Amino acid sequence: MKPSFFFYYLLIMGAALVSCAGAVPIVVDYTDDPVVWNINKPLKVVYVGSFAQTGYDLVLMDGEKKIALTNKKFTVTPTNLTVTANYPPDMPLPVDDGLMLKLTVPSMKSNLYSATLIPDFENPSIKILAMSPAIKKGGSGVVIFEARDANMKTVTIKDNSKKVFYAQPFQADGYYICFIGWHMKQPAYTASIYAEDVAGNLSMLPVGFKTVDFKYPVGKVDLDKTYEKDKTKELGLSETNLQGVDKYKVIQQELAAQSKVNISQLTSLHPKGIIEGFTLKAFKPLLKLRGTSAFGKIREYFFEGVKQKESVHMGVDLASEPKDSVYTSNEGVVIFSGYNGGYGNTAVIDHGLGIYTIYSHCTEILVKVGQTVHPGDKIAITGKTGVASGDHLHFGVLVQGVYVNSEEWLNPYWIQTNVTKVIDQAKKLMK
Ligand SMILES: [Zn+2]
Fold first, then answer.
1. Interatomic CA distance for residues 89 and 111, integer angstroms
2. Is 418 contained in some domain?
3. Do 143 and 40 fall into the same domain?
4. How far, in Å, from the CA of 316 to the mean position of ligand 1?
5. How many A from CA of 140 to the centre of ligand 1?
6. Where among 98, 120, 142 does a domain terminate?
7. How far is the CA of 381 from the centre of ligand 1 (A)?
8. What's the CA-to-centroid distance between 98 and ligand 1, angstroms?
């Protein structure tokens, strides 16, 4: 396709930029080589350095043939140089290899800047191979797809809450896997795959998840004098004469002050590099699994019978024997180990592919940051540190920083249907 072309324009430092509506230029630094040019957009070359010159020429060299892009003569010499040009409308397409971009100045024999030029006017291709059969409100899903481009830059999934999930290269060149999380506060869910090449050619494909609505319950949490006593000791607060709600407020303030990391931020890091042979088992952090407080519950906290606050439960509470052993079921790397405010003693494990698990309210964490853990490793001892009135384990899962329904990840059937089968199905379609 011949590039649409409205008018030439050029930009000199300090002068106003005139451009075609919506055509954001491709910006290249004068050290970039090669330069990949999306020929439907202007190209902006930024030269930073001493520039005591009377003018410049920006040209394309097609072998010996010189094609002028833009030039300028100065009356006042700028310190640095920004040159913007459009792709020549009469340049035949497709272009052979061997195009060069050159920035020359009148007084110099050599080029001020020279780079191999690759015209790119093709959008990346995207094709979905396999995906979760359905995604539940507050829950997780996965998509495995093919995205190809000679000069790919970023491959992401963006959902209707504007959350961006980074896809990870999977198994072989051109294939990607991406786990996503539907934040439970987002009423509906849609997501699209975006693939963009270095020249700014952008393709988008809606994922078309089948969505299942879910109503999260409301519940009550009672905190009492025992809680006040326990926390005073745990947080090292002095035995002041504060009583009741006043004391509760001091406890809450201290818990916030001792909240070292933002778990969501900590787990927003996106995976890089190609991953092969990903398998995941259902998590089973305690030998006996019995839920006592569901994920997503809107919890009203009462202290001595008076409502204090409301918050959403971003994990599942599991009943434990006092000082029960906590195990990890999948390989991972410990990224947090320590006391973290309301979560108490906590461990956070990175399992790859943007999947993280969190274990909270423990008496003790037995693993250190940077340590690799293996299925069956004992990682912690349950307890009631942080906002907890009795010994239990709070188990949470985050997908690239989004708290998701951790109950799904405890369920072998869910893992089989939404992870194992999807990966197997996609592998069969890969070349
Ligand atoms: Zn909990």
1. 24
2. no
3. no
4. 5
5. 19
6. 120
7. 15
8. 62
Digit-coded pLDDT (tens) for 354-363:
999 999 999 9
For residue 74, name the pLDDT band (cuts at 50, 70, 90). Answer: confident
Task: Tell me, in angstroms, the distance from the centre of ligand 1 to residue 163's CA.
Answer: 24
What is this structure's pTM?
0.80
Provide the number of structural domains found in the chain: 3
Angle in degrees, CA 164, 159, 272, rounded to 5? 30
Phi, psi of 280 (to 5 degrees): -140, 135
Q: Based on the fold, state whether residues 247 and 386 are members of the same structural domain.
A: yes
Q: Percentage of residues in the chain with pLDDT exceeding 90? A: 50
Q: Which long-range contacts (CB under 8 A, 24 or more apart) does 239-247 make?
A: 244/303, 244/304, 245/303, 245/304, 245/306, 245/308
**pLDDT digit string, tens, across residues 181-208:** 999 999 999 999 999 998 888 999 999 9
Does 322 lie in the same domain as 350?
A: yes
Does residue 181 share a domain with residue 106?
no
Residue (of 114, 122, 126, 99) closest to 47 by Cα position: 114
Distance CA 384, CA 231 (A): 10
The domain spanning residue 175 has which CATH number? 2.60.40.1930
Residues in the chain: 431
Cα(342) to centroid of ligand 1, in Å? 10
For 334, residues 6+ apart whose C-beta sits below 8 A from its C-beta are: 347, 348, 349, 350, 367, 368, 369, 370, 371, 372, 373, 379
Choose one of 168, 189, 212: the last residue of a domain: 212
Output the CA 113–ligand 1 centroid distance in Å. 60
Structure tokens at 106: 């009148």
pLDDT at 227: 87
Residues 177 and 305 in one domain: no
Domain annotation covers residue 5: no
What is the whole-number distance in angstroms between the Cα of residue 365 and the centre of ligand 1?
17
Residue 181 lies in a domain: yes
Amino acid at 9: Y
β-strand partners of 84: 44
Domain that holds residue 132: 125-212
CATH of the domain at 305: 2.70.70.10
| 186 CA to centre of ligand 1 in angstroms | 21
Dihedral, CA atoms, 12, 17, 23, 29, nearest 10 degrees? Answer: 30
Residue 423 is assigned to a structural domain of this protein: no
| Claim to verify: residue 386 and residue 259 sit in the same structural domain | yes
